[in-house]
Amino acid sequence: MNARLFALVFSLEARKLMSYRVDFWLNSVIGFAAHFSIVYFLWQAIFSESGSELIRGWSFEMMLLYYVLVILAGKLVRGAEHLGDIATDIYEGGLTRYIIYPTSYLAFKYAQHLGNVVPALVQLVLFATLYVLLLPMPEEAAITPASIAMAAVSIGLGNLLFYSFMAPLQSVAYWADNVWSLNVMFRFSSNLLGGAMLPLTLFPEWGQRVLDFLPFKHLYYVPVSVLIGTMGPAEWLRSLGVGLVWLLVIHLVFRAVWNRGKFVYTGVGI
Amino acid sequence: MIRVRNLKKEFRVHRKEPGLIASIRSLFVREHIVKHALKGVSFEVGEGEILGLVGANGAGKTTLVKILSGIIHPSGGEVSVLDHDPWKREDDFRSRIALIMGQKAQLWWDLPAADCFLLLKEIYRIPDGQYRDTLANLCDMLKVSGEINFQIRRLSLGERMKMELIAALLHRPRVVFLDEPTIGLDLSAQRAIRDFLLQYREEHKPAMILTSHYMEDIERLCERILIIRDGEFVYDGALDRVVRHYANHKILTAHLKRWPEEERAAAVARLQGEVLEAGRDQVRVKVDREDVTRCAQQLLSEWPVVDLNIEEVDIGTVIERIFNEKGKVPA
Ligand SMILES: Nc1ncnc2c1ncn2[C@@H]1O[C@H](COP(=O)(O)OP(=O)(O)O)[C@@H](O)[C@H]1O
Ligand SMILES: [Mg+2]
Asked: Is the pTM of this model over 0.90?
């Protein structure tokens, strides 16, 4: 796929999303408020029950900051959450057009996936500004230009990883009629193991060691930790290597699945 | 431009009985039935030719089109389109074909047509000048310049189909597959699309394969037809010939002034040809082509005819007869 086409698909998708204005604001404001209040009240209760200032080294304010950034950066990582499109294209026959057109379906989908990052970026800037204005920044947080740059790289990797995870899951639609339950399972496990539900340092020591070798932490935990400074550059670099290896592995698996799927596709609907 | 030898396609379908127990059992053992959608067909289509592919529902028309355009993998035989194997899906091949499906939108549902066209311009890398000219020309011919800024989903079926046609022809394909392009359209839209296709052929001389259930499409657009029945071709040749072979008679309909019952009965007995209907004010007779004038004269001289009408047998009826018959059409 050439760069101009990629840019066009990307911008069309972003514009389309931004043009659903009501949906955009409802989704982002209400979604954010709901998520934030759950986290706020839950951790407030936990902290007051425990009676201590710190839980495994996390203060209440730091914990809140972690979650806010997970919510916002998570949207950048997940891009088009509806990668369900791939499954739908397969069993409703929408894939046919990309077989006919001289272009790459997967590149096309990735451009759309990235297009979804634009509204997420708008939300990130907006809510992050509000946060800085309204809530105190915890003293231990060290957000610097360098940490922002490292986080940006990690978010990029997370975005690619998320896409590479979802695409083969969705491709199961070549063989099965319903991949919805797979999506749910993936969402749950990636949230838990990737640090969206809890900072991973709250897991037992042995669990953390296992998670170091899995790809999930690159989705949420690494980008946010490196941003707020709880993960240093050395550790970040090491984890980046693991993440890249996983990206390659998942990608190869996906290629194999996809190439087999081609033979099963019957272009239903016509 | 299109060459097909002994092409076969089998579909394996799971057979599943209804009910919960059967569903559970099917998790462990699956029964397959093999469906032979194409049973070894061969044909060729040349430059500037519009080939009509006709057959009943489920005969295998769409399956054939899908194989020719590279969507599905054939089970056997050889296919060459523009000297490419469609299944390889090479860009050089894909940038010179087009597929138009009346049953299924190709364009992006929630984009305006204009944006869809822009996407296609980039996909096919059409130079700016050529794009502008072709688009203006196509919109003009189909009279849809006004609707091009509406989302595809907001267009009427006829307008949408016209957009699909424009989209499919922007890159000036050399081979065009049309699978029921006029399905569900009103007569004026059908006519517009037919004229448009003829003009496109005039200017660009592509090879086209057209399937349609409207015999008018076939009559107006195709000189040659392929009749397919249960995955096999039963006729490949000129449309004229099959019509002449099967429609070797015409139907005469005369509207009558009133006249006494017994006189009419006597006249009917004398009449040449097969009397289809002999009512109080209308008579219909089926006669061989050679006997048409004689029969007409007889009607006019012996019967109190107000108005006389001579019609060809409808091609649809002819083709339908072939669908339902056994064996091939004699050459
Ligand atoms: N995806 C599929 N799976 C199983 N059988 C199919 C599939 N597509 C088509 N068939 C079968 O192949 C035969 C030809 O279908 P098709 O080519 O769609 O017919 P038509 O001439 O109406 O376009 C039919 O019997 C149909 O049931
Ligand atoms: Mg069909």
From this structure: no
First CA to last CA distance, chain A: 27
Q: What is the mean pLDDT of residues B306-326?
A: 79
Instruction: Give per-residue pLDDT as tens, A149-186.
Output: 999 999 999 999 999 998 889 899 898 877 888 888 99
In A, what residues contact B, Cβ < 8 A? 2, 4-5, 8-9, 12, 16, 93, 96-97, 99-103, 262-263, 265-267, 269-270
Distances in whole angstroms, Cα of residue A24 to Cα of each of A30, A71, B50? 10, 16, 49
Give the closest residue to B165 by CA, choosing from B130, B132, B188, B195: B195
pLDDT tens by residue, A246-260: 999 999 999 999 999
User: Is A270 inside any structural domain?
Assistant: no
CB B40 within 8 A of CB B198: no
Residue A195 in domain: yes
Residue A236 belongs to some domain of the structure: yes
Domain membership of residue A30 as a residue range: 3-261
Which residues of chain A are under the pLDDT cut of 70? 21, 80-84, 269-270
Distance CA B325, CA B315 (A): 15
Q: With a 6 A CB cut-off, is B11 part of the ligand 1 pocket?
A: yes
